[in-house]
Amino acid sequence: MHPPEDGKKHRSRRNFLGQALTAAGTAIAAPSLLQQTTAAQAEKPAITPKPGEMSVTLNINGKQQALAIEPRVTLLDALRERLGLTGSKKGCDHGQCGACTVLVDGQRVYSCLALAVMQEGRQIVTVEGLAKGDILHPVQTAFIENDGFQCGYCTPGQICASVALLDEVKRGCVSAITPDLSTPPQLATLSEAEIKERLSGNLCRCSAYNGIVAAVQQATGQAPPSPAAAMLVREPEEIPV
Amino acid sequence: MKNFAYVRASSVKEAVQQGSNPGALFIAGGTNLVDRMKVFLDEPAQLIDITRLEMTQIEQTGAGLRIGALVSNTAVADHPDVRRNYPMLSRAILLGASQQIRNVATVGGNLLQRTRCPYYYDNAFACNKRVPGSGCAALTGINRIHALFGASDQCIAVHPSDMCVPLAALDAIVEVEGPQGKRQIPFTEFHRLPGDTPQRDSNLEPGELITAVVLPPASFAKSSVYLKLRDRASYAFALVSVAAAVEMAGNQIKTARLAMGGMAHKPWRFVEAETFLSGKSATAETFQQAAKIALQGAKPLAHNSFKVELAQRAIRRALAVSAKGGGVA
Ligand SMILES: Cc1cc2nc3c(=O)[nH]c(=O)nc-3n(C[C@H](O)[C@H](O)[C@H](O)COP(=O)(O)OP(=O)(O)OC[C@H]3O[C@@H](n4cnc5c(N)ncnc54)[C@H](O)[C@@H]3O)c2cc1C
Ligand code: SF4
Ligand code: FES
Ligand code: FES
């Protein structure tokens, strides 16, 4: 785990989930998408590199992090093994599952295929950087409220991908299934099919897909979430037999 | 992954100079190269990071739309001129990989991505592309995804790119800069057939850097489509794919373009079928004949003969949709 930062409460994953669960039911403000921490923090003194290593400074969740690493270290390994930011998960390690998704300069990327030394000067945001203190990102809240996870392993990647997805729709990006390339969908009209296509770079072994789609619908401001997803979160006695 | 020396090039000149170092490779998005390095397919002594070079612009020039080699796949697909004037290129890119990959994958890197032949990826098998002269396990193995055209008895792999298929149909030009200076390569001459040197995918010389891809103006491309058929609906490589464009003059086809992925070691242009289509009326019968002409010389292998029928159906559909103005095929 990474050392507690000044003025920020250190939160383990367990803590995070505990707080997240009690936050369920809180009303969601309009999605504010990419909330990047801007607090400029003093650069830590560089660490002396060993032979084969390089000194690099990475901007992660608004904080400058000095590292001495071999060029072959991926961003994912630097985050998890060197910086204790274990939110990003290693699934396939080959760009095929999405568990390692983080945001680089506001765009979603797979950190398992990115070399850490190549990320100098770029703004990296991991799942740990999405919440503002104790206030969860609206997408995080939506995942909780719509049961967007089961084992939770794919969840950090799904959440980062969903945060980026909303931003992409806001910026007018099209997808392969957008019927007319000159009319990109809007958040309010983003269809289930568009959400599925746009999230297809994230796989979930537990098949929490319906909850994930509903969470994204909620985060776009659409209501109610898809009926299929609503069924999943209904109280047991309400399920028709 | 083996360790390597890392340098960040600050100019094209510097990159080209460094590119001739023994064991040096350029790295752009890294989405193919890092993947390959992880399984020891590539073991470069040095990586030259080219991502800070000024090759990130899309601009209109006298020769057409010039797309810098470092423009991300996402930025190409979403560019207003590409969406409007070359829709099959937008669609092809958007149907490839996932948003996370497209955000970092570059134009130059997409051209030079290597085959997805499973035997090439697996050290336990012989592969002439991986180890020249070692043999080809796909010849006698499961060759369901392999080539129908242009293969040799040394390699039957297909080029995996989606983006490159419309680029072949559009007669794009690849601009490169190398130790001998600058040159331009017509797109259909950029990639190579395997012949007896399947380890070489393209006609780039050692140390040469792709600087841009130019799309000449093409009125026919406005009504174009990209149809991709694969084992699952998204996030998978094509079994077969079609880039088709049909420009109508009244009831007659004025210009037609047809290229396919999943067919050969390079994107495969069907010039004979294009010539046949020109001047014909856009009927189901015409498209069926064009598809037949296209697949005439196909040489199916033990497991991929299904592609012959699949490709013809795909061509018929792609031509029909583009003759109606394009859209989702
Ligand atoms: C899971 C997965 C699924 C994918 N699915 C698809 C798909 O469906 N369709 C598809 O088309 N692609 C697909 N891809 C491939 C992806 O599109 C490519 O990996 C990507 O386009 C490569 O671009 P890059 O910039 O990351 O290249 P890199 O990995 O950086 O480089 C690739 C090669 O090109 C060389 N190179 C890069 N830039 C230059 C240059 N300017 N000049 C000279 N040499 C250069 C490098 O030395 C290297 O050999 C998939 C990839 C993955 C991992
Ligand atoms: S088809 Fe080509 S890439 Fe595949 S095993 Fe044979 S030589 Fe290697
Ligand atoms: S761990 Fe990066 S995509 Fe699977
Ligand atoms: S919730 Fe378990 S993998 Fe997605």
- Residue stretches of chain B low in confidence (pLDDT < 50, at least 5 long) are none
**Structural class designation of chain B:** alpha+beta
**What's the pLDDT, averaged over the residues of chain B?**
97
Total helical segments of chain A: 7
The greatest interface between two protein chains, and residues involved on each side, is: A-B, 40 and 39 residues
Shape, per Cα inertia axes of chain B:
globular
Major sheet of chain B: size, sense and barrel closure? 5 strands, antiparallel
Bound molecules: flavin-adenine dinucleotide, iron/sulfur cluster, FE2/S2 (inorganic) cluster
Helicity of chain A, as a percent range: 25-40%
Helix-strand sequence of chain A: HEEHEEEHHHHH
Query: Beta fraction of the residues of chain B?
Result: 15-25%
pLDDT below 50 for ≥5 consecutive residues: which ranges of chain A? 1-43
| Spatial strand sequence of the major β-sheet of chain A | 2-1-5-3-4
